[in-house]
Amino acid sequence: MSKRLRSLLLEEGVVSALRMAQALDLQSRRRGCLDTCLLELRAIDEPSLLPYLSRAAELPVLADGLLGTQRPLPEVLALFPLTLAARFSAVPAQLLSDGVLQVLVTVDAEASELETLSHILAYRIEPWVVCEFRHHEALSLCFGQALPARFAELLVQSQRTRQRRAVPVPLWKGHLPRFGSLDAPRTLLAQRPTEPIVEPVVEPIVEPIVEPIVEPVVEPVVEPVVEPVVEPVVEPSVEPSVEPSVEPVVEPSVEPSMEPVVEPSVEPVVEPSVEPSVGPSVEPAVRDPEVVTVKEHLRRQYYGPGRSLVRWITVKSYSHRRAAPGKKSS
Length: 330
Fold this sequence. Notes:
The protein is mainly alpha-helical. It is 37% helix and 5% strand. A three-stranded mixed sheet has the order 1-2-3, sandwiched between helices.
């Protein structure tokens, strides 16, 4: 069936001849199915590969493997051991209600091998094709086999692909192919012991008697009539105003104390004896107080009371320069 898968992919141009040659070389070195080598080389993705698997094997495809159906019953695993699964590259799955057993196979499954498997089991089988890594995943789930690292990586790659892109399920047209005789001497359903059907005992539902609730009669409460209390009018008592008697305050007369007057002692003024100087006698010039000179006028105008010391110095210096313009002031 791998040859048919290779022919379909090359004829329709899904995989190039170079990539197909690389996949065949990898298959010769590492063994396995052609679909595994193509997925490892990323020559094609899983959603695009599934329809060609179904066409190459001429069987319906199950995209999710054993997770897309039910696990086999313990009675099925007792008739379908691991040695039989490894020999025919088939894994048991769900047991249908009409006594047909679903099995998961790879693309390399042959019709003659499926007929032989049905004859050994003496049971009708319904094969579904899956990718090789899904086949090994089913072996691990049913028989507890360790999943090889090669198929574990492809399983992780498939999960990442499903997160980015939905995987469409290819529809199968026509009747599902089944292998085995209808006159099989024994079936798995016949071997299963029939359990007696125990009908549950239904106890009658007794509804509780609900007594009517009698509400107590509430008598109206008569409030007593309260007469208003009239308080007596109390007239204010007027007390006579008593004016206080003001007694005159007599201040005691204080006689001033007479301090003795001490007369200062007057010392006699001794005038120095001035000897007359021998020389020309110069009589001092007597100044008339009513005559005001220019200098005295300026002094009264600029240096009078209320003037600052700085202005006094400035005006004095200015007057000095005007008096002697040719002489530099030191």
